[in-house]
């Protein structure tokens, strides 16, 4: 079988770097071009020295994209830049997996409210499929534009949708308390990510205003038909990789610990990358892998359902999920090239 | 003024070590004796080498306690051992500040249910005052036995009591999502605290069953008159010191962000160790100090009141609070010897 | 081609776990049996929960080893236990790669001096080949017993041997200042590896007495013919994985920065897992991979040659190197199943 | 006794912040003014929120310095800026403790070679006393300009000077292998200090070219009369605070472990802030304190003297030492206001 040809647009950030880690050894694709506007002309190892002897790719400008005959392009670009790329290139030349937030929300209006930024490619919202394979596998198969989910939303939507869909929980008062490693904030040094300030530290941020809130709510609505109200509270963990999300919700009817566990086992039984675990999961048990570990329990005393889920934010929360989407779009086995065993300890 | 004479029973753990850090330079007391059953006869610097040139105390058996004329004894002992000490020595010889959980709960029955352990000194429950000065300052002043609060409960009770007492929130459905550094698990090496397994890791534990749950509920009840249902979920942060607690509750009546902020400013205005902050607090801003930083906000979209509070678990969560209680019991200014400025960064 | 059949004896430690990570997806072998005396009967996921859905192996006693027709056995056992296994099973039934220190030293006498332990299988010293492929590839190919190198020695021998062999440095006064992550101390919790005590901490240990000293010296002697005197100083880094070793030595003759760099480029040119880098290497650039990054420079002012090398102690320092040895012993391409790209950041 | 009046010029960095931590509670001084050019007009708590309720100082421009009647000024300014301040204000108005590197080296020529920067106040080199009290206590007492030592040099000079001065070691071939926490790189976020890149990482840097080399050599020369050649290799530890320095040197004559230990005990016997320890010291045993812990040993096998020393780089390596110098200049007891017990664990 001839290999599929892919390009990576914007390869100097953490998600670009992680895409390279996954795609270099992917058996069914070749990386045709890798772009960076600021570093065009340099070797990839000038930017990512850990790839020495592994890849000798040269970075080029995304203007060169049209010179290649590509099957698919990953956009590892900042919010606001992806939409310009899509506007310029359209969706006919190649399939597109966008890792930014530009096409995750239902429409321009919601986008502009939460991202405080004008959307320049609104006509493409109708083409975009939300790239969470466990929910939208069939739609992804035929999509030309996949909006790869945010890392926080991935960790929250996976445990919440079964509860909402199967009428287990009330749709208001859902609390999502998330804790993320610092790679989630991107590869660029900024005052808030200076090492000595974060080391040994911990804090909440973006309470009541984080842009992942509407992403969680709109996907749950789209998938289950229910309108939910989700309070999303992100916290910054003093580690490099990983998100752990704890959710709290109130049962709609009488439930038991066994009932919610069975629901999770049955919903996720055939999912390669979802592991239902019988104890609260540990972040390092998914490090470097594409797994999402999910735990659910019910507290009789307070009548609350609790879920705890873990992902590596650069894998199932970004690049791993993007490759999973690519596999689906190409008709490959979904886990191809994604068999990384967690790096533990 | 002659100095007060104190003893530390059980000085080889983290709280014992932190008590020494605070008491060695305390201007109004002298440390008369420091005990350890396993290390009696050794110098304190054999166990705590960082005290070299600072203290030349020798450890002795607690059997020797009666040889001293003490004003107050700190019990830095494991749960279950403190009560035996109290049973043996009574409360007449010296004032007692117990840093274990043996006298924090309202009675023997609740204790035995949550601690899975027989209580051997139940008659002293009626003497014990819960040592949270911001709530029970007057009772502490006249107490002979102070039950020093748990670290998690301190971080949860301080932000929750104003909301409950001033009728701001519904008493059911209160979620307390706490994250603690590893010193909270004690100084003894165990499988769960092996460095490589925790480094870069994060997890929840003790969901629905942690013994700090009844401590939080019973103190809120005792102080406010309201019976609450609190879901307490602890998580283990891969750092040494510090607890950050996020709480979620539902307003009882119409509220606004300004209203809850004003409530906190007014309730804590005169509290030396409580700092109401207008942004989510950072753990390192209280490291090594006796402060509790508290933030409160209201999310209109989901109608939830959120609080975030931070303490150093060995200070306001243990030894610092114990010294604060001692100061009150001795009639000293409450902040004497506790003016440590946070060690940041 | 039929697959080779291997066993892992002692799979519950960190090197056992890392061997599983590497061997489960190795294309040319099957894992026939995995042993643990203390956990025989349990599933591997009871001990290593991160392998859930990845492996359903059951642990058995090493007494069962004889029931299998094995091509090779990895001994991931503590020092002192491997030699008993070898004594019992001999070398005829299967090839053996021993990850302990039992056969790394030249003979019983040196072993007993540094390990303070009686050696019970001394006749096998003559069979043992030191498993550093970059030095002993040909010998490994025909060996029946490979003594897999220690993690520290691997990081020190690789940069030092070219300098000694090509007569670049004086053989006395060689300083090896090593810094290792805590997984090097094993998977068992002990007082010295309690999380709060190591977090944010750093120290030297085992100055002048570490048992890796004779391993470094004897291998350099065996390989180059020169007798050296190496001062080896280990330090404990507050991280999970990785060793960085800085060496200092004095030129024997006139050298230049360019000369030593060229030597390294030429010596390591064809080595798949050695990357000569032109700047001091970073630990995370080898994390999770089998690479050893090596940097060399010359300081004219003080007339010293400096090398800095990095490895992942569980990979090139243990399990990765063991699999590399296995590949050689089986006549496979040396990098088979070891193409892990460093997990960075 | 009326209190001494001091100013802090440049208070927004880490050393400025640490000076505030030390001076706010210092019993014999008052902080008259605190300056920042970029934040003039703001409250100190806008920049250092952890000082909330502790200090209500307002930042002002250093132009205002002349409005105050100050006894002493701390310059917590970047290299290159301090000298302009000294040039402008001279040394008559107030005593000056400069925490930058501008006056640490012997003269303009050496400065410009290593700092690659023009020196604009060369006439003041002759006034500057190197502020290491253990070496220059008497000179500091009468100095009007004290050049506060660099953090690395402090950790290297303290263990090396006894060995050089008492003729114990050869003056060439001295290796100084230092490991520093990241606060040593300053409070400003830069690409090299981005949290995810340093977390769990470790590396050497500035090999053969670090500007602390001439500081170490010139101070040893000045103090002992011997010209030494020191190879200084800094490494970056993934922690916030602390420097550990390991030195290696060759005896000039026959020595023993006991001899070098006795030398250290006798030299440092009366030094309040130097603790000679009989085991390799731990970084956290000095955290937050002004101690320097020093260990010395001799390796007979390789005939090398090894020292290991630890400091908190913001304390004995910067602000703590600056306050120690101030105490001496004011004729106060040297440890006044510096009695912080190490924050361990």
TrEMBL record, chains A, B, C, D:
EC number: 1.2.1.38
Recorded catalytic activity of this chain's protein: N-acetyl-L-glutamate 5-semialdehyde + phosphate + NADP(+) = N-acetyl-L-glutamyl 5-phosphate + NADPH + H(+)
Pfam families: Semialdhyde_dh (PF01118), Semialdhyde_dhC_1 (PF22698)
CDD domains according to UniProt: AGPR_1_C (cd23934), AGPR_1_N (cd17895)
GO BP term (any one): L-arginine biosynthetic process
Annotated catalytic residues: 151
Alphabetically ordered keywords of this record: Amino-acid biosynthesis, Arginine biosynthesis, Cytoplasm, NADP, Oxidoreductase
Subcellular location: Cytoplasm
Domain of life: Bacteria
PROSITE patterns for this protein: ARGC
Any one GO CC term of the record: cytoplasm
GO MF annotation, one: N-acetyl-gamma-glutamyl-phosphate reductase activity
SUPFAM superfamilies: Glyceraldehyde-3-phosphate dehydrogenase-like, C-terminal domain (SSF55347), NAD(P)-binding Rossmann-fold domains (SSF51735)
Domain (Semialdehyde dehydrogenase NAD-binding) ranges: 5-143
Pathway: Amino-acid biosynthesis; L-arginine biosynthesis; N(2)-acetyl-L-ornithine from L-glutamate: step 3/4
Primary localisation category: cytoplasm
Annotated NCBIfam families: argC
Family the entry assigns: Belongs to the NAGSA dehydrogenase family. Type 1 subfamily.
Function (record text): Catalyzes the NADPH-dependent reduction of N-acetyl-5-glutamyl phosphate to yield N-acetyl-L-glutamate 5-semialdehyde.
Annotated protein name in UniProt: N-acetyl-gamma-glutamyl-phosphate reductase
Organism: Rhodohalobacter mucosus
Taxonomic classification: Bacteria, Pseudomonadati, Balneolota, Balneolia, Balneolales
